[in-house]
Design goal:
alpha/beta; D-Maltodextrin-Binding Protein, domain 2; 2 domains; 5-stranded mixed sheet; 9 helices; 11 strands; 31% strand; binds 1-O-pyrophosphono-5-O-phosphono-alpha-D-ribofuranose
Length: 212
């Protein structure tokens, strides 16, 4: 049985939003309202879906608290923020990786002194170095983390690498890969029970396109 309320999906604004809208269009859903959105942040898609445009961390907050049934967010944000929700589908786009990067000649992993890492992702960085048994001091930076080793604030960074061009343009390189990242579909725990059939039918449709 379907309720009259649309399924509400929080999309991470920007590239993941565009890729998700393209996915919805491949499923035959009408995304005109999103293309003409102006400054509007809640928009209908097709007959029975409503998208909410939000920052990555907020996508998780809205889904976790049940004000959105589903969300599209990068695995990077999921790994950093955690939270109580189901991660049900790898959407295959938004592919990049977490890596340790630094100056090519830095010999970052040599020597016994405590290393300094700059990152926007302190949780990911600290669990990576904990697992390696390496004692590091982590400094949180909000953006353009590549500046930290250039300015002498940190010996290396933990950051997202997509094409590698930002590292290259700044004389840095990947020292170690941490893990692959891509966009994920997440679902509120209660919604998956209460609106199981609608969610399953949407996810099946998405999965068929993603698999191609
Ligand atoms: C991300 C990331 C790198 C860059 C990597 O930054 O933090 O700086 O993209 O992409 P590339 O490998 O294709 O060069 P973003 O553009 O999100 O900006 P920010 O650094 O201000 O967060």
């Amino acid at each position: 049985m379907s309720t009259n309320k649309p399924l509400r999906i929080a999309l991470t604004k920007g590239r993941l939003e565009k890729d998700t809208v393209a996915l919805f269009e491949s499923m035959g859903l009408d995304c005109t309202a999103v293309h003409k959105k102006g400054r509007k942040l809640i928009l209908p898609i097709g007959e029975s879906i409503e998208v909410v445009l939000a920052k990555a961390n907020d996508v998780i907050t809205y889904v976790e608290n049940g004000v959105c049934d589903l969300g599209v967010v990068g695995k990077d944000t999921i790994l950093e923020m955690g939270g109580s929700f189901f991660e049900i589908l790898d959407l295959g786009f938004g592919r990049c990786k977490f890596a340790v990067a630094g100056k090519a000649d830095s010999n970052f992993f040599e020597g016994y002194e405590t290393k300094v890492i700059a990152t926007k992702y302190p949780t990911v960085a600290s669990s990576y170095f904990d697992e390696k048994g390496m004692d590091v001091s982590i400094i949180k930076i909000e953006g353009s983390v590549e500046l930290a080793p250039l300015l002498g604030l940190a010996g290396a960074i933990v950051d997202i690498v997509e094409t590698g061009s930002t590292l290259k343009a700044n004389g840095l390189e990947v020292l170690e890969d941490i893990c692959d990242i891509s966009a994920r579909l997440i679902v509120n725990v209660a919604s998956l029970k209460l609106r199981k059939r609608e969610i399953e039918s949407l996810v099946d449709g998405m999965e068929q396109i993603v698999k191609i």
